[in-house]
Design brief:
Elements lengths: L3 E2 L4 H7 L57 H10 L4 H19 L5 H21 L4 H10 L3 H14 L4 E2 L16
Antiparallel strand pairs: 1-2
Helix pairs in contact: 2-3, 3-4, 4-6
Length: 185
């Protein structure tokens, strides 16, 4: 049987449908790293290596605060380290997924094709996440933290509008940016 992925956020989108955010972004485009690595996200190996807690000001933009400039919002990086303190594999998989989820909402001037390419990255990251973390509600938990403001939910909806409802075949095997066999636990 072929597996396809769709990530519905119907409840979240329904709660905010039709409401445009007054949040403005400082720049018209955001450049994010293409993959997580042990160098760019040191909390994968050591969950104590975290950026400082961001202020509430960081929620005033879709991009949020990223003081260490690794593509992960600081609040997400802290959340991942606290949620998975005993598993480098889980932290790596969650960081990979968080990076592409951020890319979905922080990318500007998307075309249908560029959105589709990001969507394929999301499918790859979800497969990595599912292989590393068997707690299936964890995916919903990460998405709830990732899309925690009206502006971020609206950006998520805008992304899917551009992409046009295309689906993705789930990749097989180890799809993690950091091969899981390189991690201690």
């Amino acid at each position: 049987m072929k597996k396809f992925i769709a990530i519905p956020l119907l409840l979240l989108l329904a709660a905010c449908s039709g409401v445009k955010s007054s949040v403005t972004e400082a720049s018209s485009s955001v450049t994010l790293p293409t993959a997580v690595s042990l160098l760019s996200v040191p909390m994968v190996l050591n969950p104590a290596l975290l950026p400082a807690s961001p202020s509430q000001e960081s929620d005033k933009t879709v991009a949020g605060a990223d003081v260490n400039n690794n593509g992960l919002r600081d609040d997400i990086e802290i959340w991942i380290a606290r949620k998975y303190p005993n598993s480098a594999k889980a932290r790596a998989a969650a960081a990979q997924l968080a990076l592409v989820l951020q890319k979905k909402v922080a990318s500007k001037n998307l075309t249908k094709e560029s959105a589709y390419e990001i969507g394929k990255e999301v499918a790859t990251a979800i497969q990595c996440f599912r292989n590393a973390i068997t707690d299936h509600p964890a995916l919903k938990d990460l998405m709830a933290v990732q899309y925690n403001t009206r502006a971020r939910v609206n950006a998520y909806g805008d992304f899917h509008s551009v992409m046009g409802g295309r689906a993705f075949r789930m990749p097989k095997g180890d799809t993690c940016s950091i091969p899981t066999d390189q991690l201690p636990n």
